[in-house]
Prior knowledge:
Elements: E1 2-7, E2 13-19, H1 30-43, H2 103-119, E3 123-126, H3 136-145, E4 152-156, H4 162-167, E5 173-177, H5 183-187, E6 191-195, H6 196-207
Parallel strand pairs: 1-3, 3-6, 4-5, 4-6
Antiparallel strand pairs: 1-2
Amino acid sequence: MIEIPVYNLSGAQVDVLKVDESTLGGEVRPGLLKQAYVRYHANARLGTSATKNRSQVEGSTKKLYKQKHTGNARRGSIRSNIMKGGGRGHSKKPRSFRQDMPDKMRRLANRNALLAKAVDNEIKLIDTLAFDKPSTKQFASLLETLKIDRSVLVALQNTLGHEAKSAKNLEQVSLTRIDQINVFDILNHRFFLAEKSALAGWIQRASGGTEAK
């Protein structure tokens, strides 16, 4: 059983969230996490890059000069890839980089990424994250109080409230909805910050297989 400390806005520990490791995969699985991370990154690629090869560029196909007895290196047409304006030697063609992964593995990878953060004590939980008005200074002070000095993923129930507006101008802070967290965003940040009730609800839904893929 993992116990994750829960703090208030003043930085005092007021509770703990007990999480059964089995609901998050039992143990950290580096191979699964890497596969899911690479898949997410690959699926974000557009694959629209394109360059012309020597058969597609404009220009004559005539040999520039005879093969021998000129004292020069052998030369083909002006479309050669070593000529200015010539084609590319290994031209790029539009392609899909998409990778597939079974739904159960995707969900397990999301949970396992949280387990990796919990094992490294990089999950920061707040009992109630609520601001009366938008305040970047107040949110920055909260991060300092919780000793968050690196990149942090803040998972909120609603990304339109005062808390989100307070955090969006901070350089190392990324915002997401708690129901949209994924292995790529979790592992791309050093810390994970959320409300206790929000994370507990997500874990409960995840153990039933109903969280986002």
